[in-house]
What we know:
- The chain is an alpha/beta fold.
- Among the domains are: 72 residues, Arc Repressor Mutant, subunit A (Orthogonal Bundle); 101 residues, Rossmann fold (3-Layer(aba) Sandwich).
- The protein contains 16 helices and eight strands.
- α13 links the parallel β4 and β5.
- It is globular.
- The two termini are 25 Å apart.
- Bound molecules: S-adenosylmethionine (SAM).
- S-adenosylmethionine binds next to α11 and β5.
Amino acid sequence: MSIKCAVQLGLPEAVGAHAGPISLPDLVSSLGLPPSKAPYLHRLLRLVAHSGFLSLHTKLNDVERYSLTPAGRFLLSDNPYNAGSLLLAVLDPVLTEPFHHMSAWFRSEKDDDDVNTTTFSSTHGGKMAWEYMATDAVFSDLFNDAMARDSCMIAELVVKEGRSAFEGVGSLVDVAGGTGNMAKAVAKAFPGMSCTVLDLPHVVSGLEDGGNNVKYVAGDMFESIPAADAVLLKVISCFLFYLIFYNLNIIFNYICNCKLIALV
Ligand SMILES: C[S@@+](CC[C@H](N)C(=O)[O-])C[C@H]1O[C@@H](n2cnc3c(N)ncnc32)[C@H](O)[C@@H]1O
């Protein structure tokens, strides 16, 4: 929560924009905070430094000054590998609120209409996560943006270090591929490959096909998956979970007949 507060205040940008390590009074003024909040900002800074996102410098006249660590630079909003949006998404009340109801969930009986299937659904009117997201555009955008930024970094590494996994693949479908950053990176690295991004309608509707070799398909991965030489799964543990525990034969047979590239 301290890091979330720091990101929301714009603290990484204020520290990063300063020429050299920044003092507490300078930070209070560049963040536009009331001077009375300085002692509290000091505590926040200590916590953020303790978590490894800031370095503490005390050498100059014994005044505490702060600079961003390499991890702290990942919180800068203009960093293409920004992790701040993922942090804001996972600490959003939509995802944290269910944790406050875990004991009530344990005590409740599973009801017929599945309202109490998970703590998420019992908190959000019986809706499971993806169903809920289709009804909350603000949170959905936050979550999709977080995943897209996560994909930027992973994609760069995967197409460089894991190049051999994609060689010889003529067509690929990124199952539950979000807004398509991963597929776009693969398509760019392998211009001869035709890439399809399959995701739920509220995620991909309105997205333009990303160049000649990326197209979007709106659908449910548990119902059908477009044909391709290879299936890419990134951060789709629920899909693997369903395959293993619910034995979805149709999908399982499909996966067995093509190459599976899983990034969990
Ligand atoms: C954790 S995100 C991962 C997104 C993307 N693979 C990535 O790594 O950036 C899970 C994705 O699964 C999608 N999803 C959930 N259930 C789905 C379903 N039944 N069919 C298709 N996509 C689904 C969600 O909309 C979301 O984009």
